[in-house]
What we know:
Rossmann fold, alpha/beta, 6 strands, 212 residues, 31% helix
Amino acid sequence: MRGKVTDRVILFIDYQNVYKGARSCFYSQLHPPHTAGQVSPLALGQHLVRSSPYDRELAQVRVYRGRPDSTKDPKGYGACTRQVAAWERSDRVVTALRTLRYPYGWPERCAPGEKPQEKGIDVALAVDFVRLAIEKEYDVGILMSTDTDLKPALEVVASLRSSGGPRVEVAAWSGDNMHNRRLSISGTNLWCHWLNAESYDQVKDPTNYTLD
Length: 212
């Protein structure tokens, strides 16, 4: 029987989703600077563990995001590379990157308003969330995203709880005038870490990674 020990936490971050959510919650201007919404994954994980009333330790933060193509967007690729390198200075941060998919004819000859898109990020996150739970790599898995495509992964891991599997939790931004959507699953009381402006101020990253 497992004695009372410190629970190992892994935070799973859908980075672009988290970034856009912070921008919508905490910035009122129409076009805030591109650094607005950036967070330090390690600081975010530490904040979630520190603010928990339970005995927990941050084992890992896993960040899932799209990466610009080095030939189609060398400036964006360079900024992404510098940002990821900053994250990975901590051995507790693991990144999963997939090259963005670009519209045909991008950028000059594509349809107006078309932009590069992330592809496969939600699948990669979902697979790892389930796989690491089955492999007993975490006692508490916190998922930060509003992407409902991730609900099946939450449901699978939550169903393992009755047989000694990990605890599943989610996190979401909460502004003065709005909450981001939070992920939930039917029939399960899924704990949500609501992160307000004060929390955001503790984990935000104002670094301009487009500068060499």
